[in-house]
Amino acid sequence: MTSPPIEKHNIGNGKSNKRKYMLESLSSKLFLLCALLSVLSLLLIVGFVFYRGSHPFIAEGYSFFEFIFGVDWVPGEDKFGIFPMIVASIYATIGSLIIGVPIGLFTAIFLSEIAPKRVAKIISPAVQLLAGIPSVLYGVFGLAIIVPFLQNYLGLAKGQSLLAVIVVLAVMMLPTIVTVAETSIRAVPKTYREGSLALGASEIGTIFKVVVPAAKSGITAAIVLGLGRAIGETMAVILIAGNSLIVPTSLTDSIRPLTTNIALEMGYAAGVHQEMLFATGIVLFSFIMILNFVLAKISARGAN
């Protein structure tokens, strides 16, 4: 008399399990599709840029060596040399890292290890808000405050310079470096700190000899992300760089980085001129990949 309800119950469980397995299968396929779309988007962007950028050297016979090491960029005369822009981009990136990384790292250490909770709750959101400010506003700030300051107090004829770019880029990378580094430092187990203090190390010694090395991978990631922000920035740099096509020999020289060149001329470029701008994008992409590779190698060597 009791077997029919049991059979109905088993049938109901079977249908429920089947529905659950179908839902899980669909969910996993949806996640896979999203991951593939991300990879496909990257491949399409890189492939398109490399295809358009390599065309003038393969089909038109332009010299890649002259493109990289040429000092004249005059599209009307078929002169496409980006060496001054490469040097400007390197100087601006290195300069911003020299200023931004120590400030960002020390801020992250202060917020995660030293600051009282009340202070950290005020400073941390304020730093994170910097990431939400549009890039063009950083450029306007630099143009209205930093450029006149350099012009008046350093006696420059033109305040738009490499130094102005370095200062603005250093400020722009701070929220990225501080946020990621702080999260990484907070993730270090408390036992590391307790063990170091128990052995007689000071609090500052523990931070720099135990906590920071333990969070090295996260700190390196923070530097890489900040580096990407500095290299790829365009709108802010356009306003404060001065856009001079010269090889900078001092911090007070006006410059035109690679990103600025692409943004300024892509709107009206056509033919070989446009393809050379895509080639500039290839150089910029390669530049970023090389720097990331070097940082990864340095981090791996330090870990060993």
From TrEMBL:
Annotated keywords: Cell membrane, Membrane, Phosphate transport, Transmembrane, Transmembrane helix, Transport
Annotated compartments: Cell membrane
Pfam family, one: BPD_transp_1
Residue span(s) of domain ABC transmembrane type-1: 86-295
Bilayer disposition of the protein: Multi-pass membrane protein
Key word Transmembrane present: yes
Gene3D superfamilies associated with the record: MetI-like
CDD domains: TM_PBP2 (cd06261)
Chain segments annotated as transmembrane: 30-51, 82-111, 123-150, 162-181, 219-241, 276-295
Entry keyword annotation includes Ligase: no
Annotated function: Part of the binding-protein-dependent transport system for phosphate; probably responsible for the translocation of the substrate across the membrane.
Recorded family membership: Belongs to the binding-protein-dependent transport system permease family. CysTW subfamily.
Protein name per Swiss-Prot or TrEMBL: Phosphate transport system permease protein
Lineage: Bacteria, Bacillati, Bacillota, Bacilli, Bacillales
